[in-house]
Amino acid sequence: TIIPLPQRGKVSPEEVGRSIGYFPVVGIIIGLILAGLNWLLGLFLPPTVVNALLIVCLVVISGVLHLDGFIDTCDGIAGHKTPEERWQVMHDSRAGGFGIIGAICLLLVKWVSLNSVPGSLLMATLVLMPVVSRWA
Q1: What are the pLDDT digits (tens) for 90-116?
Q2: For residues 24 and 135, is the Cβ–Cβ distance under 8 A?
Q3: Which of 41, 70, 72, 102 could pair covalently with 90 via S-S, beta carbons 3.0-4.6 A apart?
Q4: pTM for the whole structure
Q5: Is residue 114 within 8 Å of 47, Cβ to Cβ?
Q6: For 66, phi and psi rounded to 5 degrees?
């Protein structure tokens, strides 16, 4: 997430392990931001546009970290390459064609999924979606 938190130097693996319990709390914060943005934008924009902007917000809040990892994974598994070549492709800073196509498909699936949520469940979905994903 790009939500700034105070840091006191390098974080040890033990500290990361102890912090796992706070991941759902971060999810609640992100979910509340999404729900608030949905309410605000819903006052003057159609739902399909609001849902697209919510996905953009989610990508930005996560620092594009998850989408970048997905792109790297798509690039790595898509070609007929040796395991070493796949590893190199996945650690290359450039995005390949398979990664870009994968990202477009992923974002479209997210958008279609949000548009298929009934209006009565949308706010709860927006709040719980980031919580559950960080609890996994």
Answers
A1: 777 778 888 899 999 999 999 999 999
A2: yes
A3: 72
A4: 0.83
A5: no
A6: -70, -45
